[in-house]
Each structure stands twice: as C-alpha cells, then as structure tokens.
Amino acid sequence: MANQDTVPPWEEKVLAALDAGEIDQALNALIAECGQAILAYCLARLGDDAIAHDVAQDVFVAVWQALPGFRREASLRTWLFVIAHNRCAKRRESLGRFRRLFSSGLDKIVEEAQPDPADPPEEAVLKHQQAERLRRALAKLKRKERDLLTMYYMEELSLEKIAERYSVARETVRQQLIKAQQKCKQLMDDKHYDAERTRTTRRP
Amino acid sequence: MTQNGREQQDVPSDLALKEAFEAFIHQTQVPEDFHAGVMERVQHQRARRGRWGGWESFGTWWTQAWSPLGVCTATVCGLLSLALNIGLGYYAWQRMQAVTRLGQELTAAQAQVREVQAERHQWQTRQAALTDQLAALQAQAQREAQDNAALRDQVAAAQEQVRQTQAENHEWQARSADLTRQLGALQAQVQPEAPSARGTILGLAPKSVSSPMVPGTDLRGRPYTTAELAQALFPEDRGWRFRSSMPKAPVVLPLPFAPASAAIEPQYFLDLDRLATVLTQPQYAASRVQITGHTDSLEAPGTETALAHQRAEAVQRYLVAHFPLASEQLLVHGEGASHPRATNDTPEGRSANRRVEIVAME
Fold first, then answer.
1. Which of A93, A153, B68, B201 has the most CB atoms less than 10 A away?
2. C-alpha distance from B18 to closest chain A C-alpha (Å)
3. Bridge-partner residues for B357, per DSSP?
4. What b-and-e string marks burial along B224-254, b requiring 16 or more CB atoms within 10 Å of the CB?
5. Domain locations in chain A?
6. Residues 21..40 of B with a Cβ closer than 8 Å to A: which?
7. B259-318 confidence digits (pLDDT tens)
8. Which residues of A touch B4 (CB under 8 A)?
9. Cβ contact (<8 Å) for B26 and A188?
10. The model scores a pTM over 0.80
11. What ipTM did this prediction achieve?
C-alpha cells in the first residue's frame, strides 16, 4: 500500500511546475512517470491495446484540463488513477453496449497481444511469461473480479476505498477479493496456462 | 498502519500476484507516439477553448456513449414520433377548423333564417297594405272612370257649345247691326208704334218659334249658348242703355214633357246644367228667379195647376240637388194652361204648351 505521508520526488516536481503555472511541463512529467502505469491499468481494465491506448491518452487530456484545479487533497497518483478509473468505466459502458451488439468478446482481442519481440534475458523472459499469464488470467476472469484485482494491486486502493466505491460493506469486498485472488492464481497455474496455450495454438 | 496491518491479516496480499502485476506494468509497451498523441489532443483541446468552447461537448453529451445503431434507432424513432405528432396535430387542427367553420356557418344560417322570416313578415304586411290600397285604387278608378265619362260628355258638349257660340256670335253681330239700323229707321219713321216695335225687339228669338201671345225667349228646337241664355234671363247686363228699364222676359226652357207627366228626360239635364252655370255666376248670386210650370188644355182637367207646379218643382229639385243654389232663390209657380204659347188644337201645339219658363225677379 502507498504511504500517504511521503511524497515521491516526481510528485514534488510536478507540483512545483504546477505552482509555476507550467501546466504542459507538469503534464510531461506525469506522462513520463505514470504513463506506463496508466496504460497498463487501462489495458487490464479494458483488455484491448488500441482502446486502452486511446483511453489512456484521454485520461491525460482530462488531467491537463483538470490540473489547474487540483486541490491536493489526495496524492497525485491517487487522483490520476481516479480519473483513469472513471474514464475506463465510461468507455467500458459504451463499449459494453457496442459489444453486446457488434462484437464477439474480449478473448480474441487478448489473444492478439504479442509477447515482447526483443530477445530478453532470463529474468525478463520470466517476467514476460508472468505478465502474459496474468493477461490471460484477467481475460478469463469476470469483470468484477478483474476490477477488484486491478484496484487492489495496481491502483493500490484500500478495502475501505473499494467498498466505498462500490457502496458495499468492507467484508463483502474482502471476501470477493479473496475469491478473485484464488481464481486468478488458479488460472495462472501451469496446468491452466498450458492447457490454454495448447487450446489457443491449436486453433487455426 | 493498523488498518494496513489488519488488511494484511484479512486479505493475504499475494506476493506472486503482486509481482505478476508489477511485471504486467513493466511489460506494458508505451507506444512511442503516446506522448505526442496526448500533446496533440491537448493542443486540439486548447484550440477548441474559444468563446464557445464548452458548448460543443454540451451539444453531444447525450450521444457520447451511444452506439451507432442506438443513434440510428433513436433518430428514426424521433423522426417517426415527430411525423406522427405533426400528422396528429395537423389532423386535430383540421378537425378544429372544420368544427369552427361549421359553427360559423350555422350561426350565419340562423341569422339568415331570422332575416328571411322578418323580411317575409314585412312583405306580408306590405302585401296586405298593398291589397287594401289596390282595392281602394280600383274603387277610385271605377269612380274616376264614371266621372271621366261624364266629364268627357261635358267636354264634348262644351266644345259643341263653343262652336255654336262662335257661329251665333257672328250671327248676332250681323243681326245687331241690322236691328240697330231698323231701330234707327223706326224711331225716325213711326214714333207712336214704339211699344209694338219694342215687343218685336224683345222677341229676340226667330219669328217661327216666337209666339205672339206670350213674350219671352223660347230656346226649344234650336242651339243656344250659355251666354245667350244669360242674356235672355238678365238682359240689362248687355249694357244697352235703352233696355235697362225693360221688364224681365220669361225664357222657355227646352224641356219637353210627356202628357200628364212631370218627369225630366235625362238627356235634358245638360240644359238644366247650363241654366245652373248661369245662376251660379257671382254677378247673379243675389238675384232670384221664378220657375213657372205650364200644361196644355187637355191633360188632367182640374189638376193643371198641380201638374204645372210639379213640373216647376222638378226643375227646382234638380238644380238644388246638384248645384250650390238655395230653394229660396228659385221660386216655384204652377200656371196651368192659362198661358198657352201655341194653339191647343194640334198635338204639336199642345207639346209646345207643356213647358217650363224661367223669369228673373226684380
């Protein structure tokens, strides 16, 4: 969990630029620091590279618009993720409508994701494998479970915040999160992963 | 931290998952154009921030999250609804217009009916009035036709009289010149014979009609004029100096009577009218005349006077009834057969003796 008391240096830098009135500079610093995290978050939430890319850019445009009115009640990272969460929810709402009508589902899009083409060292291969497993597991999970996991592990929200966001009891969130973790880990197991890989590779 | 500690206890934060998520984040490839794309959108947004910048998004906020099919469906539904509403509105408007028009026509028709009824009543009233007027006019026309016939007769008689008057005037002028010449000769020649000559002069009528027994003017059997009649009745008005002291001579009216009858034939009313015309003239209004009836010797022996009186009365009655003459002005006298104008031996003589004479009183 993020420590609210200690302000990371990049955040100080951004706030300093904001105080100086350099909005573009602050945005550049934000993109450089949190661009990858936001993009990953959008990808995990939405499951499609192109859509995630578009939404992430939207998030930063919204940040640029809202940055002069930032009240510093929360950390910049939390604020950024709140915006990303709203944008993702909004986009997924419209996408949900669209997909119910026109599209077949998320699986195919996820399968199209390609592994890193560069020749990585062994640890990198392991990390890539981990990431790939997680990606597939997330695609298999239900939307609610995926959201819970991304909120907890990527957005680093507390159980109270998640419960508040869903307007449910904390205990409920806790039990759902435990179930989601178990299911995700199960899906990331070698057995499932291999079976999934063989199934997908066998598919013409 | 206690909260975190409890969470740590409650939710076993899976290390493998955490690592996997971190790896996922690190493995996520940020495209090279990501930053440029963001800045491009920012520039675009900045350019849109103009005077009406905010209104563009406001105009499309409700369709931002819509699918194309949804937009199409909504558009089609909206258009259909609009068309339906317009159609219904137009239909209702037409019905309303029709109802209003019908009401106006009804009111107008009612007003027209009232007007026509009033007019009919007026016409009926006028027709009744006209019918009355027509009846009155017809009656009047009838009366006037009768009057007209009488007037035409009078006009014809007046014309005839004028013609006669002109002719007689001429004759009179000639005769007066002749008489004046005779008078001068007689006055110079025979002074003692004056009375008989005077009688001759008094007998102004032609000698064939005039009787030697009774002096006066006999108007029977010849045409005469009103002026001549007035002259005969009131001879002093001629203005002749030697006649001013003369006694009044009787004038025999041209009224033939049947034996033993006092009735006046209608065709002789014109002569009586002529007499009335003379008597009603203003200069003779104060004078009185005496109407004397005569009979012949054969009719109704013993009652001659009564019959003669009746004849004179018949004349008086006609004059008083038809003209503004008082009965005091017209004295009536029955003479009988004592003053014959002709011989009673022949029927012509007796007819001439059945007569009425008029004489002006002093």
1. A153
2. 6
3. B252, B292
4. bbbebbbbbbbbeeeeeeeeeeeebbbbbbb
5. 1-110, 118-204
6. 21, 23-31, 34-35, 37-39
7. 888 888 888 888 888 888 888 888 887 888 889 888 888 876 667 788 888 888 998 888
8. 1, 158
9. no
10. no
11. 0.80
